[in-house]
Design a protein that fits this description.
Elements lengths: L6 E2 L4 H11 L1 E4 L5 H24 L9 E3 L11 H4 L2 H10 L12 E10 L27 E6 L12 E2 L22 H13 L12 E5 L4 E2 L9 E9 L10 E4 L3 H4 L8 E4 L8 H15 L1
Parallel strand pairs: 1-2, 10-11
Antiparallel strand pairs: 2-7, 3-4, 4-9, 5-7, 5-9, 6-8
The structure holds 2-oxoglutaric acid.
2-oxoglutaric acid (AKG) binds next to strand 4 and strand 8.
Length: about 300
């Protein structure tokens, strides 16, 4: 049986791209230095406490129980080029999107900078995609044009809720219930296909060491699973997308001073630099809660 978890060294761009095309994901081993990740992990542990207190104050996490929308800080002391603009990751994205050797405006774009924290006691999420198919049912599925780059600042294991991935599912045309392909939609179309798919290719849960990076097509089916350990498992999530000149893109907000880490790399940071502090921690969950309440009222 073909091995569906492909682990490559940073710099093995060709094999990484092949794995993403075939399986929908790849792991770049020992790619991000440990020092910035240790700083991020410590801060994200503290932030989890605050975010959980906020969730308690609004009647609970508006997402699946125990699965927090928690991104890293966006201030210059904790935004690192090795994390947000990692050379090996950027090279894979450029090769994926055919931007090799290209300059300036053809660079891929950073379109998301946030993350997921899986807390002890969490539940199994609905199987979902983080992005949608742009092709119609019956058409050939389009090549990868957007990837999630997951960078866990600590180790991930079967015990602490390593993400579940469905190899090759990025090439199966389907939509989530809401039709948006976005995060927490119930995904009953996927659920209907999952039983059959499992017989063809079983889901996997790759464990990772500190410094490993998971790159996955946004259309890959996946879900969070219970964290049976006694501490939160963080996973920074960037999205790096192919640039389509006609598509509008929303700029990402970082504090002044982050330019040094984010500018001048092979991926366009797509950033707006503003006077801090930016509410990077609570605001995303507040927005999810507002959207949820609005949809319940409809
Ligand atoms: O944290 C994980 O393992 C996956 C989380 C996820 O897919 C989500 O929260 O939408």
């Amino acid at each position: 049986m073909t091995e569906t978890i492909v682990r490559v060294a940073p710099g093995d761009t060709t094999r990484a791209v092949e794995a993403i095309h075939e399986h929908g994901f790849v792991i770049l081993e020992r790619t991000v230095p440990r020092a910035p990740l240790a700083l991020l992990r410590r801060r994200m542990d503290e932030d989890t406490e605050e975010l959980l207190r906020y969730c308690d104050s609004i009647g609970g996490n508006p997402r699946a129980l125990g699965h927090l929308q928690q991104g890293p800080p966006v201030s210059p002391d904790l935004v690192f080029a090795d994390v947000a603009m990692n050379r090996a990751v950027n090279d894979v994205c450029r090769a994926l999107y055919g931007a090799e050797g290209a300059e300036g405006d053809s660079r891929p774009l950073l379109t998301f900078y946030n993350g997921n924290t899986n807390c002890p006691g969490s539940v199994v999420q609905h199987l979902h995609m983080d992005g949608k198919h742009y092709t119609e049912v019956g058409e050939t599925v389009a090549p990868t044009a957007s990837v999630v780059v997951n960078i866990p600042p600590g180790p991930t294991s079967l015990g602490n809720g390593a993400i579940e991935l469905w190899p090759g599912s990025h090439r199966i045309h389907c939509v989530n219930d809401a039709g948006t392909g976005a995060g927490e939609a119930a995904g009953s179309t996927i659920a209907a296909l999952a039983t059959e798919r499992r017989r063809v290719v079983a889901p996997v849960r790759p464990e990772t060491e500190v410094g490993d990076v998971l790159i996955r097509d946004v259309r890959l089916w996946h879900r969070g699973v219970p964290n049976d350990s006694d501490r939160p498992r963080h996973m920074i999530a960037l999205i790096v997308s192919k640039r389509f000149p006609s598509a509008p893109v929303q700029r990402l907000r970082f504090e002044h001073g982050c330019e040094a880490a984010l500018e001048g790399h092979g991926v366009d940071a797509n950033a707006e630099y503003v006077q801090g502090p930016i509410d990077y921690l609570i605001a995303p969950t507040r927005r999810i809660q507002e959207r949820r309440l609005a949809s319940e009222r409809r």
